[in-house]
Write a structure and sequence with these properties.
- The chain is of the alpha/beta class.
- The strands form five sheets. An eight-stranded parallel barrel has the order 1-2-3-7-8-9-10-13.
- Helix 13 packs parallel to helix 15.
- The longest helix is centred in the N-terminal third of the chain and has 17 residues.
- The termini are far apart.
- The protein binds 1-deoxynojirimycin.
- 1-deoxynojirimycin binds next to loops.
Length: about 725
């Protein structure tokens, strides 16, 4: 066989170092070595976020131009999925060159500038490292298939016997039937855990391991702050096993961590291991042989959705009870949605059937073992559910990772193939291409969402900045509140007994404070008695508005009443400490609210009769010294200053009550902004309305079973 020429870029070593960013060039970053434990991550698809020109594809310069927005939102770290050269048959996870930037995204210089500009704004950047496999277009594979005896001949897993490793499951069940594919060039089968155009690298080969170390070195020298280790459970194979989570994989990861700690201390490794908690914790390694700093917690995510429809806290409570403790300094990564399908691999068969019924009634909404929809449409655009889901994400253990566009309630497009359904262009404005690009609309890498409900004319950043009750402002506000309470990142999690199965209660505590979090999963009001035996007599203060709540009773119980999909975050203080502390948010002359048995709102709850309460509007918590960064976004009103000039003729304000959302005004065609706002007005209440106007009735009013509900699922009604 003749040796194919291997392009220089394919050579695993040496990698030319690029200039390392000087510490002086990162004025915005704190030196906290455990920054990731209290950080809010934001997954931003380069291709989807912002096009600086008219290429039709997002790029580095576009992202740089939008960094002010991300800083304003309150994001601490960006996660960039692959931006490397790639045939893009798996969204870039089919890498054909690990050490450069795909030309459509810009240049290495642009990447340097992105790093500098993000760091200057106090934001870090982690990138995807796709170690398990390459594209079949990668020069390593091209060489391997054509020159088995050459330097790359053993870079992949080849066999003549396609019956090996039969105990390994197929992951992409929609497209693949086997983990082996026959290569007509080498006339052997190659191993792949994902698409058949993504051959797995052979980690038994030391040259592969060293090549991957060099890739990591390269990007560390560029200055990235860490790596999301894609598909990390599958690096090694062994006969008679599932070929997942093998000891050899852990050995390699511990070696990788040792190299990073020695050569690039402070860089963070994050495991993408879609596994059960007891298997995932192995990816933290041991004290002597640490592996990853963070691991995504996959199983908790679908259970948040499950709990919302079941209207019981059980699923979330149980998975957290089954989650082992993690080493000091480690952290979970949590999320509601990402660029993949909402995976249902880590739920039971019954739960999966129920979730398909609740959340993916149209088969087009399903992909592999999961649901390819975005957060807002999954939750029926219910503002109350969106708030509740975020409140859980931000208060449960772990560092939350938001998915671009979910902060404005972006929709999806199930008519696009595979996971492109949730990878459409970011919706910035109601203008052409949603302000994402100035290209001819037909040139966009994917069309912008123009669905009836989530049309970009209605759901976009500009409109939501203009409306201070928008989801965007709400998300920004709650991120700010979370920032003021690092306990949500580094605090212990203690679940509390409650007598109402719709209600989840737990405390988060560190040496500085304890916060009690109580959440009503049901879509009807609930009253619950929470057991706080260690906090009898303690005082409770609302984190958002500073209102005093009734103290925990002498017997250690607390009775709370929560509205539909409601939640409380209450600071728990000893009475002697409370007296010394200011009642946050209350003017000094206003006496504390009288203690009431079931948690009546305090005097700061100034919403008029019938007006929805806008929690983040009262987040002006005067915490000296720990306040949020105060970036200014051009055209953004300062917090608390109402907009006086409505943008572009969109009338501010709430549509009259009684006008059902989604009912077009007479004579208006569907899909033309025909909501309650009248002709030409985007149906902004879909995302902008407050509680009470949120369309929560979409799941059948008071907890009715919906069509398509799986027979195995319990009826959501669970009034105790
Ligand atoms: C996980 C990534 O999130 C997904 O998008 C990709 O298809 C697989 N890994 C394979 O790389």
């Amino acid at each position: 066989m003749t040796a194919a020429p291997v392009p220089a870029a394919a050579l695993p070593a040496p990698v030319e170092p690029t200039a390392q960013l000087d510490a002086d060039e990162r004025p915005g970053l704190t030196e906290d070595p455990q920054w990731y434990r209290t950080a809010v991550f934001y997954e931003v698809l380069l291709r989807a976020f912002a096009d600086s020109g008219d290429s039709g594809t997002g790029n580095l310069r576009g992202l740089i131009e939008r960094l002010d927005y991300l800083q304003w939102l309150g994001v601490d770290c960006l996660w960039l999925p692959p931006f490397y050269p790639s045939p893009l048959r798996d969204g870039g996870y089919d890498v054909s060159d690990y050490i450069s930037v795909a030309p459509e995204y810009g240049t290495m210089e642009d990447f340097h500038e992105l790093m500098r500009e993000a760091h200057a704004r106090g934001m870090r950047i982690v990138i995807d490292l796709v170690m398990n496999h390459t594209s079949d277009q990668h020069p390593w594979f091209q060489s391997s298939r054509s020159n088995p005896d050459g330097p790359y001949g053993d870079f992949y897993v080849w066999t003549d016997d396609a019956t090996r490793y039969q105990d390994a499951r197929v992951i992409f069940v929609d497209t693949e039937t086997s983990n082996w594919t026959f290569d007509p060039v080498r006339r052997q089968y190659f191993w792949h855990r994902f698409f058949s155009h993504q051959p797995d690298l052979n980690f038994e080969n030391p040259a592969v391991r060293e090549a991957m170390f060099d890739v990591v070195r390269f990007w560390c020298r560029v200055g990235v702050d860490g790596f999301r280790l894609d598909a990390v459970p599958y690096l090694f194979e062994a006969e008679g096993t599932s070929c997942e989570n093998l000891p050899r994989t852990h050995e390699f990861l511990a070696d990788l961590r040792a190299m990073v700690d020695a050569e690039f201390p402070g860089k963070v490794l994050i495991a993408e291991a879609n596994q059960w908690p007891e298997d995932v914790v192995e990816y933290y390694g041991t004290e002597e042989r640490p592996e990853c700093h963070m691991c995504f917690h996959f199983p908790v995510m679908p259970r948040i959705y499950y709990a919302l429809r079941e209207q019981r806290a059980r699923a979330v409570r149980d998975i957290l009870a089954d989650t082992p403790a993690i080493p000091a300094g480690a952290q979970w990564g949590t999320f509601l949605r990402n660029h993949d399908e909402l995976t249902l691999e880590m739920v039971s068969t019954e739960e999966r059937a129920a979730m398909y019924g609740w959340y993916a009634e149209d088969p087009r909404m399903r992909a592999n073992v999961g649901i390819r929809r975005r957060l807002a449409p999954l939750l029926g655009n219910s503002r109350a559910e969106l708030e509740l889901a975020h409140a859980l994400l931000l208060s449960l253990p772990g560092s939350p990772c938001l998915y671009y566009g979910d902060e404005i309630g972006m929709g999806d497009n199930i008519w696009l193939p595979d996971r492109d359904a949730v990878r459409t262009p970011m919706q910035w404005t109601p203008d052409r291409n949603a302000g994402f690009s100035t290209a001819d609309p037909g040139k966009l890498y994917l069309p912008v969402v123009q669905s009836l409900i989530n049309h970009y004319a209605a759901v976009n950043v500009e409109a939501q900045i203009a409306q201070k009750t928008s989801l965007l402002h709400w998300v920004r506000g709650i991120l700010e509140v979370r920032r003021q309470h690092p306990v949500f990142g580094d605090g212990d999690f203690v679940p509390l007994p409650v007598d109402n199965d719709a209600v989840l209660a737990f405390t988060r505590s560190n040496a500085r404070e304890t916060v009690l979090c109580v959440t009503n999963m049901a879509n009807t009001a609930r009253s619950a008695t929470v057991q706080l035996p260690d906090h009898a007599g303690y005082h409770l203060t609302d984190v958002f508005g500073g209102a005093r709540f009734p103290a925990v009773r002498a017997d250690g119980t607390l009775v709370l009443t929560l509205g539909s999909r409601d939640f409380f975050w209450l600071v728990v203080t000893r009475p002697e400490d409370t007296d010394a502390a200011p009642l946050l948010g209350l003017p000094a002359h206003v006496p504390p609210a009288p203690a009431e048995e079931d948690g009546a709102a305090g005097p700061d709850d100034a919403a008029g009769p019938g007006e929805p309460r806008q929690r983040p509007e009262s987040y002006a918590v005067p915490t000296a010294g720990t306040g949020p960064r105060a970036p200014t976004l051009p055209g953004t009103p300062a917090r608390g200053i109402p907009l006086s000039t409505p943008p572009r003729g969109v009338p501010l304000g709430t549509p009259p009550r009684g006008v059902p959302v989604g009912t077009p005004a007479a004579g208006l065609p569907l899909g033309d902004g025909a909501g309650a706002g009248g002709a030409g007005t985007p149906p902004a209440e879909v995302v902008d309305g407050g509680r009470g106007d949120d369309g929560r009735g979409d799941d059948g009013g008071p907890a009715s079973a919906r069509p398509g509900t799986a027979p195995t699922a319990e009826t959501p009604e669970s009034t105790p």
